[in-house]
Write a structure and sequence with these properties.
Blueprint (H helix, E strand, L loop, with lengths): L6 H29 L3 H8 L9 E4 L9 E6 L4 H5 L2 E4 L11 E5 L25 E6 L4 E12 L15 E7 L7 E11 L1
Length: 193
Amino acid sequence: MKRYQTKRGLARIVARVIAPLLILAGLVVMGYSMLIGDPLATLALFTNDTPKNQTMTLTVPDMRRVDEVPVYDAPMNDESALHDGALHVRGTGFPWQRGANVYIAGHRLGFPGTKSYLVFWDLNEVKQGDEVILTDANGTRYTYGVFKKYVVEPSELQVTKPVAGKSIVTLQTCTLPDYKQRLIVQAELKDVS
């Protein structure tokens, strides 16, 4: 008796052979992207419960002026976003993304009468272990603990990149007295509530 291949039989072959190959190829591409440090690929795997908008507030209990400061998402060179608070540098991570570097810049002096006024004036006084709290639009609080403080040149953009094995927030302001360099404070995620 002769057997003929039907369309249903062909569909089974496709499902059993080609589909797993496509899935495997996708996993290989994602793995390679993570291996080379592509932050978008890493974040895509771990994003959960993303807020409806990217609005955030920043609180640093050990800094006098940083209490629910609005954080605006904009390009690094957008001065208008720094006018009324702090700036989340567009293209860096968000607190709800595992493995992210949430990069936030703020003025030392800022604009009198606004939330930016002296917002990061005393950032240099933050110590290891101090808390940094970001709150998203859903009201979720992300509590970080400071682990590193250092100074870089304005051209050293590697500070905006994710840090392997950590979910962090990076705070940046200008150095005193000449504002020529950038003071960087990094804190690692400790709690989400």
